[in-house]
Specification:
By secondary structure, the protein is of the alpha+beta class. Helices cover 46% and strands 25% of the residues. The protein is built from 5 helices and 8 strands; from the N terminus they run H-H-E-E-E-E-E-E-H-E-E-H-H. The chain starts with a helix and ends with a helix.
Length: 169
């Protein structure tokens, strides 16, 4: 016969899992729209969600500053962010980030500090995955890892091509 306390614990665990199910489903669907994860199967995205942390930032809050350690990759889920450099107490805006944009990819491949400062222009929700967690995911799910890394290479190559076009104007 089952111990009634164990049954209560199982019920609580199941209730907690069911509470997070709609949020998890929504995240899995959201990731399908992020270019980096578009080639992943639903099951591969479900596995990836287990490695992702949700971070919330208020308007004006710094995500990170230039030269901070670079060990977390972010995907903007909601809100708007400003990427900038500071020079002589002025902000030189480099880019605006919107939902589905991602940043921090340099730290996934190189031991290099942050190259710019990122600040929330409005209340924002970010999905974060650490360098270590991404490596663990790739080791555990190599097929999905190859898809992500291949797409990352494609995206970074296109960035270089586009920057070259801007410089050669």
């Amino acid at each position: 016969m089952l111990n009634p306390k164990k049954k209560d614990l199982r019920t609580k665990v199941k209730d907690e899992e069911e509470k997070h199910l709609p949020e998890e489903k929504e995240l899995i669907k959201f990731l399908s729209n992020v270019a980096l994860f578009g080639k992943l199967t639903r099951n591969e995205r479900r596995n990836l969600v287990k490695y992702i942390y949700i971070r919330k930032f208020k308007i004006g809050e710094m995500i990170f500053k230039k030269n901070y350690p670079n060990v977390v990759f972010y995907i903007l889920k909601e809100g708007e962010l400003k990427v900038f450099l500071e020079k002589n107490d002025e902000e030189l805006e480099l880019n605006r980030l919107h939902p589905l944009d991602f940043f921090g990819e340099i730290g996934l491949f190189l031991d290099h500090s942050r190259t710019a400062t990122v600040k929330a222009v409005e209340d924002s929700v970010l999905l974060a995955i650490s360098k270590r967690d991404l490596r663990d995911f790739i080791a555990r799910f190599p097929r999905a890892g190859v898809k992500i890394l291949y797409k990352m290479g494609e995206i970074l190559c296109n960035h270089v091509i586009n920057l070259n076009k801007k410089i050669n104007i």
